[in-house]
Write a structure and sequence with these properties.
The chain is 57% helix and 15% strand. The strands form 2 sheets. A 6-stranded antiparallel sheet has the order 1-2-3-4-6-5. A 3-stranded antiparallel sheet has the order 8-7-9. The protein starts with a helix and ends with a strand. The protein has 385 residues and is α+β, with helices and mostly antiparallel strands. It contains 16 helices and 9 strands. The radius of gyration is 28 Å and the shape is elongated. The protein folds into 3 domains: 5-88, Tetratricopeptide repeat domain (Serine Threonine Protein Phosphatase 5, Tetratricopeptide repeat, Alpha Horseshoe); 98-327, Protein of unknown function DUF1054 (BirA Bifunctional Protein, domain 2, 2-Layer Sandwich); 330-383, no CATH class.
Length: 385
């Protein structure tokens, strides 16, 4: 004997008011859906029942069915977000055996707040960084920084990973805020179109943050980026393009996703011709691993394999980093500041090369002089008449 739809609806509402989401509630709402497939509320209640019983796949299917009938269903939307959050925090046996970063870890990155994601993923990230710290490449980088008078006995120190927004965690080497930094960055989808990890060299050219020396720090990193361009032009142009082609390398700038539509040669030319680094605030070049690529997924899911790829990438980029980092960067920064002050004190004009001829700026103010020194390669100075 078929129970009337109205009676099924009455019983379903009664169970919901009693906070009973057990087997009877599943049966009643499933039968109601069988009789009335477009019953949005029944699909939503069924999703809630499966969520409470931790049947996450069934909950997702039911809630997606409710949203297909009504995309503005706020209850179904919130329940679906909760399903994803709880599923991310409930690993399967296979996921527990994973030592790296699988779909579960990227789901955590996507669904949890930045602070919660950091706490939840901390053990895996720290285990990876500890493995990288034990490599010979890491030791060479630390030694190179120490030769320049910098402190730090570890490549990555404890808690050297951060998150400023949902869906993104990044890590860089100790002391690397105002340096060309060896950088790792995890992204979920969203904000990017694919779950992925970047591995390579980054320049954080922004003055944002809590650093007390943001102005001088930006001057320093701008000087480093200028030296990076010179090093790249002089001896790395061809080699970097070849490495990017063979290893899935892409550039990234500002808050954009990786420029996957740039061929390696075009990407290298973009790096060489970039003249607005400070305005972009972030520039990166390196290898990217995408979770939807089966081969990349195997690497991401295995900490040992991932650490080896990171080490290989950093080892390959080390000479380019060293050519950028080594040398008298302090003297270069001080010289630029001293030159800017002298130009202003002596009331000089600045001439810069623009197309087929020199153009002049009469008696520029101090900020303008510093801008020219950081962005123009061909400059002349003459005393104002």
């Amino acid at each position: 004997m078929n129970v009337p739809v109205s009676e099924l609806e009455r019983r379903a509402l009664e169970l919901m008011k009693q906070a009973d989401f057990g087997p009877e509630a599943v049966r009643v709402n499933a039968e109601l859906i069988e009789r009335a497939p477009k019953h949005e509320s029944a699909w939503t209640r069924l999703g809630r029942c499966h969520l409470e019983q931790r049947n996450f796949d069934e909950a997702v299917s039911a809630l997606r069915a409710a949203l297909a009938l009504n995309p503005t269903n706020g209850i179904a939307t919130n329940l679906l977000a909760e399903v994803r959050r709880q599923r991310a925090l409930t690993p399967t046996a296979k996921e527990r055996a994973t030592t790296g970063f699988s779909a579960r870890e990227f789901a955590i990155l996507e669904t949890l707040s930045p602070d919660e994601a950091l706490r939840t993923l901390q053990p895996r990230i720290e285990a990876l960084l500890d493995t990288i710290n034990a490599s010979t490449t890491a030791a060479r980088i630390v030694e190179s920084r120490q030769r320049q008078g910098e402190s730090g006995s570890k490549f990555f120190h404890a808690n050297s990973f951060y998150s400023n927004s949902t869906g993104h965690i990044f890590a860089f080497h100790q002391g690397g805020r105002w340096e060309p930094q060896f950088n790792l960055g995890w992204f979920s989808s969203p904000p990017l179109t694919s779950n992925c990890l970047r591995i390579g060299l980054g320049f954080n050219l922004s003055q944002t943050g809590r650093d007390p020396n943001r102005v001088t720090g930006q001057e320093r990193i701008l000087a480093f980026f200028d030296r990076f361009q010179q090093t790249l032009e002089k001896s790395w142009k061809r080699e970097l393009a070849q490495w990017m082609r063979a290893n899935g390398g892409f550039i990234q700038y500002s808050n954009h996703p990786p420029a996957v539509d740039f061929l390696p040669e075009r990407a290298v030319e973009w790096l060489l011709n970039c003249r607005n680094a400070a305005a972009l605030e972030w520039i990166f070049v390196g290898r990217w691993l995408f979770l939807d690529n089966p081969e990349d997924a195997k690497i991401l899911g295995d900490r040992a394999k991932l650490a080896k790829v990171v080490d290989d990438s950093f080892r390959t980029l080390f000479p380019l980093w060293l050519g950028t980092y080594a040398g008298s960067f302090r003297e270069r920064s001080l010289l630029k500041r001293f030159t800017a002050e002298r130009i202003q004190d002596c009331e000089c004009d600045v001439l810069f090369w623009n197309g087929p001829r020199w153009r002049s700026v009469e008696r520029p103010d101090f900020p303008s002089v510093r801008h020219f020194l950081h962005t123009e390669r061909r400059l002349r100075v003459r005393r104002h008449r």
